[in-house]
Specification:
135 residues, alpha+beta, 3-stranded mixed sheet, 3 strands
Amino acid sequence: MATNVRLKRLEKLALQHASQVVLYELSDPRLTPVTLTRCKLTADLSWLTIHWSVIGTEADRNKVSRALDQARPVVQGAIADAFQTRRTPRIKWKFDKGVEGALRVTSLLEDLKRARQERGDDEELPEELPDDDTI
Protein backbone atom coordinates (compact mmCIF):
# COMPACT_ATOMS: atom_id res chain seq x y z
CA MET A 1 0.00 0.00 0.00
CA ALA A 2 1.22 3.43 -0.88
CA THR A 3 1.23 6.32 1.56
CA ASN A 4 -0.91 9.37 0.91
CA VAL A 5 2.13 11.53 0.13
CA ARG A 6 3.43 8.94 -2.31
CA LEU A 7 0.02 8.68 -4.00
CA LYS A 8 -0.13 12.45 -4.49
CA ARG A 9 3.39 12.48 -5.90
CA LEU A 10 2.58 9.64 -8.31
CA GLU A 11 -0.70 11.32 -9.34
CA LYS A 12 1.19 14.51 -10.16
CA LEU A 13 3.82 12.57 -12.09
CA ALA A 14 1.12 10.67 -14.00
CA LEU A 15 -0.68 13.88 -14.96
CA GLN A 16 2.54 15.47 -16.20
CA HIS A 17 3.51 12.49 -18.33
CA ALA A 18 0.00 11.84 -19.66
CA SER A 19 -0.36 15.50 -20.63
CA GLN A 20 2.97 15.50 -22.39
CA VAL A 21 2.13 12.36 -24.35
CA VAL A 22 -1.35 13.54 -25.35
CA LEU A 23 -0.30 17.05 -26.31
CA TYR A 24 3.12 16.51 -27.88
CA GLU A 25 3.75 12.89 -28.79
CA LEU A 26 0.44 11.82 -30.31
CA SER A 27 -0.41 13.17 -33.74
CA ASP A 28 -4.17 12.72 -33.47
CA PRO A 29 -5.90 16.00 -34.41
CA ARG A 30 -8.93 15.02 -32.33
CA LEU A 31 -6.82 15.52 -29.20
CA THR A 32 -5.84 19.14 -29.83
CA PRO A 33 -8.68 20.71 -27.78
CA VAL A 34 -8.37 18.35 -24.78
CA THR A 35 -7.13 19.34 -21.33
CA LEU A 36 -6.14 16.76 -18.76
CA THR A 37 -7.29 18.24 -15.47
CA ARG A 38 -6.39 15.79 -12.68
CA CYS A 39 -5.57 12.19 -11.80
CA LYS A 40 -6.78 9.86 -9.07
CA LEU A 41 -4.73 6.78 -8.24
CA THR A 42 -6.06 3.91 -6.18
CA ALA A 43 -4.16 3.00 -3.01
CA ASP A 44 -2.99 -0.33 -4.44
CA LEU A 45 -1.73 1.41 -7.61
CA SER A 46 -3.91 -0.76 -9.83
CA TRP A 47 -6.12 1.94 -11.39
CA LEU A 48 -5.45 5.50 -12.49
CA THR A 49 -8.42 7.66 -13.39
CA ILE A 50 -7.45 10.60 -15.58
CA HIS A 51 -10.01 13.39 -15.71
CA TRP A 52 -10.19 15.38 -18.93
CA SER A 53 -12.16 18.27 -20.33
CA VAL A 54 -12.86 19.81 -23.69
CA ILE A 55 -14.58 23.05 -24.61
CA GLY A 56 -17.02 22.39 -27.39
CA THR A 57 -20.09 20.47 -28.38
CA GLU A 58 -21.22 16.97 -27.47
CA ALA A 59 -19.81 15.78 -30.80
CA ASP A 60 -16.39 17.22 -29.90
CA ARG A 61 -16.54 15.44 -26.56
CA ASN A 62 -17.36 12.12 -28.25
CA LYS A 63 -14.49 12.50 -30.72
CA VAL A 64 -12.02 13.24 -27.94
CA SER A 65 -13.34 10.33 -25.88
CA ARG A 66 -12.77 7.88 -28.73
CA ALA A 67 -9.30 9.31 -29.40
CA LEU A 68 -8.34 8.99 -25.72
CA ASP A 69 -9.51 5.38 -25.67
CA GLN A 70 -7.29 4.64 -28.66
CA ALA A 71 -4.35 6.44 -27.05
CA ARG A 72 -4.68 4.53 -23.76
CA PRO A 73 -1.84 2.00 -24.43
CA VAL A 74 0.65 4.72 -25.35
CA VAL A 75 -0.22 6.86 -22.33
CA GLN A 76 -0.17 3.84 -20.03
CA GLY A 77 3.29 2.88 -21.31
CA ALA A 78 4.64 6.37 -20.69
CA ILE A 79 3.25 6.36 -17.16
CA ALA A 80 4.71 2.90 -16.52
CA ASP A 81 8.15 4.16 -17.58
CA ALA A 82 7.81 7.20 -15.32
CA PHE A 83 6.57 5.29 -12.25
CA GLN A 84 9.19 2.52 -12.25
CA THR A 85 7.05 0.45 -9.89
CA ARG A 86 6.22 -3.24 -9.92
CA ARG A 87 2.63 -2.61 -10.78
CA THR A 88 1.53 -0.40 -13.65
CA PRO A 89 -1.87 1.17 -13.12
CA ARG A 90 -4.55 0.62 -15.74
CA ILE A 91 -5.98 3.86 -17.08
CA LYS A 92 -9.61 4.93 -17.01
CA TRP A 93 -10.64 8.17 -18.70
CA LYS A 94 -13.36 10.27 -17.08
CA PHE A 95 -14.89 13.48 -18.40
CA ASP A 96 -14.50 16.37 -15.93
CA LYS A 97 -17.74 18.35 -15.76
CA GLY A 98 -16.21 21.01 -13.52
CA VAL A 99 -14.72 23.10 -16.32
CA GLU A 100 -17.95 22.98 -18.29
CA GLY A 101 -19.91 24.07 -15.20
CA ALA A 102 -17.53 26.95 -14.55
CA LEU A 103 -17.95 28.16 -18.13
CA ARG A 104 -21.73 27.98 -17.78
CA VAL A 105 -21.66 30.02 -14.54
CA THR A 106 -19.36 32.59 -16.14
CA SER A 107 -21.72 32.89 -19.09
CA LEU A 108 -24.71 33.36 -16.78
CA LEU A 109 -22.89 36.07 -14.84
CA GLU A 110 -21.98 37.87 -18.07
CA ASP A 111 -25.63 37.70 -19.19
CA LEU A 112 -26.75 39.10 -15.84
CA LYS A 113 -24.23 41.92 -16.05
CA ARG A 114 -25.34 42.75 -19.60
CA ALA A 115 -29.01 42.74 -18.57
CA ARG A 116 -28.30 45.06 -15.62
CA GLN A 117 -26.45 47.48 -17.89
CA GLU A 118 -29.36 47.51 -20.39
CA ARG A 119 -31.81 48.31 -17.57
CA GLY A 120 -29.62 51.12 -16.34
CA ASP A 121 -28.63 49.32 -13.15
CA ASP A 122 -24.99 49.51 -14.10
CA GLU A 123 -23.93 50.65 -10.65
CA GLU A 124 -21.04 48.45 -9.69
CA LEU A 125 -21.28 46.29 -6.62
CA PRO A 126 -18.65 47.06 -3.97
CA GLU A 127 -15.55 44.91 -4.06
CA GLU A 128 -15.70 44.38 -0.30
CA LEU A 129 -18.52 44.48 2.16
CA PRO A 130 -18.46 47.43 4.58
CA ASP A 131 -17.24 46.96 8.13
CA ASP A 132 -19.86 46.10 10.73
CA ASP A 133 -19.27 49.49 12.41
CA THR A 134 -20.43 51.47 9.36
CA ILE A 135 -23.74 49.66 8.94
